[in-house]
Each structure stands twice: as structure tokens, then as C-alpha cells.
Amino acid sequence: MKIFSAAQIREADAYTIQHEPISSVDLMERAAAACTGWIEDHFPPAHPVYIICGKGNNGGDGLAIVRQLLEKGYEANAWLLTGNASADNLANQARLEQRFPGHIHPLNDVQEFPAIAADGIIIDALFGTGLNKPVEGWLAGVIHRINDLRTRHTVIAIDMPSGLQADSSSLHTPVVQAHYTLSFETYKLAFMLPENAVFGGEIHVLPIGLHPDFLTQTPARFHLTDQETIRTIYQPRNPFGHKGTYGHALLIAGSYGKIGAALLATRACLRAGAGLVSAHVPGCGYEIMQLGEPAAMCVTDADMQHSTHFHLDINEAKYNSIGIGPGLGTHQQTALALEKLLDNYPLPMVLDADALNIISVYPYLLYKIPKGSLLTPHPKEFERLFGATANQFERLDLLSRKSVETGLYILLKGRYSTIACPDGSLYFNPTGNAGMATGGSGDVLTGILTAMLAQGYTPKAAIILGVWLHGYAGDLAAARLSQEAMTAGDIIHHLGDAFLQGI
């Protein structure tokens, strides 16, 4: 699913008006009807509704919602900013006054904000996506008033919480903190970033019939990975395939006290479909690996009895993919071994955890990584690699620039994990949950991604599919076990169901 900018959404509206064709006020009626239907499905008419309306088209949506709710038997009123209103806003003022006179009240100062009944619902229709600067003055006071009331009343934002800018940071500015946001047709970029999590609440994207030609033909830099995309990427098994068909993957992982990371990555790699899996671990982990995952082969450094960390050469030529980093440690000998691996292995690989931490200490190694490789930093690892930023929009820009500059696919992990591609596109992953914020979850992801590369997926397909499956398996595990009780191993156990139910 494409994520359009605020400017592109305005273009989509204009294109729909011209090519459907439909009048702008009737398109607004359609958007309002989608919101009214959602409200009707979730809140009975016993709740009085207070809609705070601006002077633009977002306020016009709000006025139309008031009229539609009144038609359905709700007690609904609008508090409207006075002044120069948009044409469609004026049209909806007239429609409301003609059908239900006396339901529009002026709002010229925060002191005119309505007194909200105990079971009342507040709907924010002040600004929407048209805002391009921070809210100031008494209007900021209106936003603060709404936020003060949210602990006792449900707050619903139309299109976007007022004060939130779609395509740039809104940190340190007043923004409505909604329980629900009813947005139109596509997600907004602002919804994808953690710094805005407190504002949107539950995001519901409602279809309003924007012209499909615009949606399909207009290019977008940002995407939200959906099931349709995953099904186009997934490659079904060849009935005549054998274990050699699906590649030989190598996991270089583990150090003294962290062999569990190697075990998790190896199990995940097997479960994600690699034909053959070898685990290269220090000698101290040999018996653990042999007993813990008999389906995998185990390779150790030559001085097996004394080895506690990765530090010697490997025969990397026989592997279709390599994943390195989980539990690896950052010993100086390990750094030297990593550099030699990067010098000699030409294929895309997966680098995570301590492999990334080593590169942050020796930045020149970044430019030795084979093109098309997959890097999977969490936010702190990303900051150590590439530096701090003032906000998450700047971090998103830095993420994309580094991917283009290095030719690497970089996954910034978190809610809506973000995949930056060397072609400049970015993909947000919607699967996954807070229960996956547990030790070993990243090791599992490394194993899955290494398996995808081993099976012959392109790097872009491998990272989009692998991240989606990892999150979906986590969602299935949480649904069965709870977010609190699930562990990284539970993600592995639910990978089979993720393939069966998700693709």
C-alpha cells in the first residue's frame, strides 16, 4: 500500500473530482459518511457528540458529520472557528443550518469551548492534513483543552489529529491526543513514526472512493507492506526441489555465555525454509549446538577446545548466504575475522547485533560490506552507526540516504520497522507487537532473513518478506500466549502458521 504525502492526497482529491467526476462538496460528503458510519458502529446514539470544526475542509468534514449524526438520531453539535471559511465548509454550514438550525456555535476563544457532558464524545475536525506550521495562540489552548479532557472523554480525530503535520516533525508543538483517528484512503507518513504514537491512538483508514487510476499510477516513495505485496513476493516450493534447491545458509553467531543467540538464529533459519543450515560457533558452544538443533551442521574454530569467540577463517565459498552477528561479541580478534569475511565473501549477507557494533567502532568496514546486503539495527545500533538526529523525520531521511549511499538494505527495527532500499524507496512493516520486545527476537529475524537469501530471493524481496513473516509469527504467538508471556522461541514455533495463514 502506498503512503502518499499531504500534497499527493490533495492531488488525489482533485483527480477524483475531475475524472469521476464528482463535485468537491459531494466528495466531502462521502468522506463524512465513512466517518459517520464508523462512529455509528462503535458508539450508540446515547452519547452526545461535540465536534470542534476549523474553517477549512477538515472543518467541512466535521460539519457534514454533525448533520449526518443528527439524521441518525444522535445529539450532535458543531463549535466552529469563525472567519474566512473554504467554499465547501460554507456549503456544509448552509446544509446544516437548513436541515437542523441552531447546531452551529461560534468558537472564537478557548473560553467558548463547550462544557462536555459526562458521556460525551469529542471530535477533532480543526485542521487535518492542510496544516504546515505549528498551532499557536488561543488555538493551541483549544488543543490543550481537548487533551485535558481525554482522560474522561473519548477523542476522535478526523483525518489527522490537529497540530500533527503529515510529512514533517511535530515535536514540541501542541497536537491533539486522540483515542481514535479516522483517516482517509491511505496512511500518512506521520502515523508510522514512534514520536507521534501518543497522538493518533488507533488509526482507522477509511475508503472514500478516491479514483483508482490515481492510486495505482502515482508513484510513491513510502509504502506500507500489505498481504497483497507479500503474496506477490512469496515463491511456492518446487515439487521436484531438494535440499540443494533451497540453499546452504551459514550463521556465524555466539560467544561465551551467548550461544543461545546462535541457537535461536539457527532454528529460525531452518524453520524459514533454508535447505541446509550450518552454524559457526566458538568451541565452547559446540555441544550446545549439536544437542540443541540436530538438523543443523556445526562448524567451530580450529582450536575448538579453547575458543570463546569467533576469530578464525571459514570456507565461506560454499554458502549461498551468510548471517553474522547474534551474540557474536566485539573482541578485537572477532573484528579482524569479520573484516576478512567482508573482504572475501561477494554475495549479499545479513549483519546484525555485534557485527553492527563492530562496524560502528571501525566505520571503514561499512564500505566493505557486499552490495545488496541486509543490515538490521535497532535504534541505538543505528545511532552508533550513523549518528544522532533531532527527530524521527530526520532519522528517516538519514536512513534512506545511507541506504542509497552504500547500496545496502537497512532495516530500522521497531514498531512499523522501516526498510530503506538503495533505490530510495522505504517500506514500513505493519506486523509485530510489543511482546516481541524480548531478548532473542532479533536473532530470530537474522535467521529468517539468512534463510530467505539462501533460497534465492532477491535482497529486497528477502527483507520485505522476512520482516513481515517475523512480525506475523509474533502476532500469532501473542494471540495464543499473550504479549507478556511470549519469548523469542515462540516466534520460531509460529513461523509455520505464519506461512499457512499469512500467505
From TrEMBL:
<comment type="similarity">
    <text>Belongs to the NnrE/AIBP family.</text>
</comment>
<dbReference type="InterPro" id="IPR017953">
    <property type="entry name" value="Carbohydrate_kinase_pred_CS"/>
</dbReference>
<dbReference type="GO" id="GO:0052855">
    <property type="term" value="F:ADP-dependent NAD(P)H-hydrate dehydratase activity"/>
</dbReference>
<feature type="binding site">
    <location>
        <begin position="413"/>
        <end position="417"/>
    </location>
    <ligand>
        <name>AMP</name>
    </ligand>
</feature>
<keyword id="KW-0413">Isomerase</keyword>
<dbReference type="InterPro" id="IPR004443">
    <property type="entry name" value="YjeF_N_dom"/>
</dbReference>
<feature type="binding site">
    <location>
        <begin position="128"/>
        <end position="134"/>
    </location>
    <ligand>
        <name>(6S)-NADPHX</name>
    </ligand>
</feature>
<protein>
    <recommendedName>
        <fullName>Bifunctional NAD(P)H-hydrate repair enzyme</fullName>
        <ecNumber>4.2.1.136</ecNumber>
        <ecNumber>5.1.99.6</ecNumber>
    </recommendedName>
</protein>
<feature type="binding site">
    <location>
        <position position="378"/>
    </location>
    <ligand>
        <name>(6S)-NADPHX</name>
    </ligand>
</feature>
<feature type="domain" description="YjeF N-terminal">
    <location>
        <begin position="9"/>
        <end position="216"/>
    </location>
</feature>
<dbReference type="GO" id="GO:0005524">
    <property type="term" value="F:ATP binding"/>
</dbReference>
<comment type="function">
    <text>Catalyzes the dehydration of the S-form of NAD(P)HX at the expense of ADP, which is converted to AMP. Together with NAD(P)HX epimerase, which catalyzes the epimerization of the S- and R-forms, the enzyme allows the repair of both epimers of NAD(P)HX, a damaged form of NAD(P)H that is a result of enzymatic or heat-dependent hydration.</text>
</comment>
<dbReference type="Pfam" id="PF01256">
    <property type="entry name" value="Carb_kinase"/>
</dbReference>
<dbReference type="InterPro" id="IPR030677">
    <property type="entry name" value="Nnr"/>
</dbReference>
<feature type="binding site">
    <location>
        <position position="124"/>
    </location>
    <ligand>
        <name>K(+)</name>
    </ligand>
</feature>
<feature type="binding site">
    <location>
        <begin position="57"/>
        <end position="61"/>
    </location>
    <ligand>
        <name>(6S)-NADPHX</name>
    </ligand>
</feature>
<keyword id="KW-0547">Nucleotide-binding</keyword>
<dbReference type="GO" id="GO:0110051">
    <property type="term" value="P:metabolite repair"/>
</dbReference>
<dbReference type="InterPro" id="IPR029056">
    <property type="entry name" value="Ribokinase-like"/>
</dbReference>
<keyword id="KW-0479">Metal-binding</keyword>
<feature type="binding site">
    <location>
        <position position="327"/>
    </location>
    <ligand>
        <name>(6S)-NADPHX</name>
    </ligand>
</feature>
<keyword id="KW-0067">ATP-binding</keyword>
<dbReference type="GO" id="GO:0046496">
    <property type="term" value="P:nicotinamide nucleotide metabolic process"/>
</dbReference>
<feature type="binding site">
    <location>
        <position position="159"/>
    </location>
    <ligand>
        <name>(6S)-NADPHX</name>
    </ligand>
</feature>
<keyword id="KW-0521">NADP</keyword>
<keyword id="KW-0630">Potassium</keyword>
<feature type="binding site">
    <location>
        <position position="442"/>
    </location>
    <ligand>
        <name>AMP</name>
    </ligand>
</feature>
<dbReference type="Pfam" id="PF03853">
    <property type="entry name" value="YjeF_N"/>
</dbReference>
<dbReference type="GO" id="GO:0052856">
    <property type="term" value="F:NAD(P)HX epimerase activity"/>
</dbReference>
<feature type="domain" description="YjeF C-terminal">
    <location>
        <begin position="226"/>
        <end position="502"/>
    </location>
</feature>
<dbReference type="InterPro" id="IPR036652">
    <property type="entry name" value="YjeF_N_dom_sf"/>
</dbReference>
<feature type="binding site">
    <location>
        <position position="261"/>
    </location>
    <ligand>
        <name>(6S)-NADPHX</name>
    </ligand>
</feature>
<comment type="function">
    <text>Catalyzes the epimerization of the S- and R-forms of NAD(P)HX, a damaged form of NAD(P)H that is a result of enzymatic or heat-dependent hydration. This is a prerequisite for the S-specific NAD(P)H-hydrate dehydratase to allow the repair of both epimers of NAD(P)HX.</text>
</comment>
<dbReference type="InterPro" id="IPR000631">
    <property type="entry name" value="CARKD"/>
</dbReference>
<feature type="binding site">
    <location>
        <position position="162"/>
    </location>
    <ligand>
        <name>K(+)</name>
    </ligand>
</feature>
<keyword id="KW-0511">Multifunctional enzyme</keyword>
<dbReference type="GO" id="GO:0046872">
    <property type="term" value="F:metal ion binding"/>
</dbReference>
<feature type="binding site">
    <location>
        <position position="443"/>
    </location>
    <ligand>
        <name>(6S)-NADPHX</name>
    </ligand>
</feature>
<keyword id="KW-0520">NAD</keyword>
<feature type="binding site">
    <location>
        <position position="58"/>
    </location>
    <ligand>
        <name>K(+)</name>
    </ligand>
</feature>
<comment type="similarity">
    <text>In the N-terminal section; belongs to the NnrE/AIBP family.</text>
</comment>
<keyword id="KW-0456">Lyase</keyword>
